[in-house]
Design brief:
The strands form 6 sheets. This protein has a 4-stranded antiparallel beta sheet with strand order 8-9-10-11. A two-stranded antiparallel sheet has the order 1-2. Strands 3-4 form a two-stranded antiparallel ribbon. The chain contains 9 helices and 14 strands. The two termini are 24 Å apart. The chain has 2 domains: 152 residues, no CATH class; 96 residues.
């Protein structure tokens, strides 16, 4: 939920020396902005362009980016978002595949706001009475979140931070196994989405070791027999721990008055207004 402390794009600015784009006899300067990174650059390896960086510079979307979003070939290959990010990132040494998931999401939200505005209109089907209703998310209200930077959250959930590896360890409540977890990148999430076993695949990806054993087969073997209570607990902890953008809002059904927290779906359709 939102706490109104850290607003996305708070540090945005447009430099005066943005490169002009020629259009026939006309010349249009495509603005750029600096987007706040939820990760604060902490979870990138040394030598990565975003290691230790609080912000990243992106350019505003143009008709060229709309071509990317509309490309049936790119949609079929499942690389629309990756190609879009390649176009938007000013520093071309940054690979979209290596972006921390929360940073990727922050860039997508900022690009959507600058291109089409902060209101994202959609329709939501009530999970209780099945009534379909219009709903508008206010993207400007989205803020940066991440329990990884909250000492109280880490203490309450008995999470231990390894400063060198930038990983976290905790003891699972049922099995009493100690697991070490890391922050996912965009490429790892895409691999899980393409997998027929998304839950166990995701757990196997962000769990780095079991009781200090980092062998891949050991991790996968444990995940396959992991108590459901532990799996749910770990997924909840990870969701609150990982740096990201809070894309949730409370939907209330006008028909049955059911209330539920919903999230903006971040896909290619997210960029089209209306």
């Amino acid at each position: 939920m939102r706490n109104n402390k850290n607003r996305l794009g708070q540090q945005s600015q447009t430099p005066a020396d943005a490169a002009p784009q020629s259009i026939g006899a006309l010349s249009y300067t495509v603005p750029t902005e600096f987007v706040e990174l939820p990760s604060r650059g902490v979870f990138y390896p040394e030598g990565h362009p975003l290691s230790g960086q609080d912000t990243v510079e992106i350019k505003y979307m143009t008709a060229k980016e709309e071509d990317v979003l509309s490309s049936q070939a790119l949609i079929k290959k499942g690389v629309v978002i990756e190609r879009l990010l390649e176009n938007l990132l000013v520093d071309k040494t940054i690979s979209p595949k290596t972006l921390v998931v929360g940073d990727r999401n922050a860039i997508m939200v900022a690009a959507r706001i600058s291109a089409y505005g902060s209101e994202y209109e959609t329709r939501i089907t009530c999970p209780v009475c099945s009534t379909s209703l219009p709903f508008a998310f206010d993207l400007k209200a989205d803020e940066v979140k991440g329990g990884c930077f909250d000492e109280q959250f880490l203490s309450e959930n008995k999470l231990l931070l390894d400063d060198d590896k930038k990983t976290f360890s905790l003891v699972l409540p049922t099995s009493q196994v100690t697991v070490e977890v890391g922050v996912l990148t965009s490429n790892q999430v895409q691999d899980n989405e393409d997998n027929d076993a998304p839950v166990t695949s995701a757990l196997s990806t962000f769990i780095l070791s079991i009781n200090g054993d980092a062998n891949v087969n050991t991790v996968r073997g444990f995940v396959q027999t992991m108590p459901a209570k532990d799996a749910r607990h770990l997924r909840k902890i990870y969701q609150e721990l990982a740096p990201n953008v809070d894309l949730s809002d409370v939907f209330q059904c006008n028909a049955c008055f059911h209330s539920e927290e919903m999230e903006v779906p971040l896909n290619a359709e997210f960029f089209w207004p209306g």
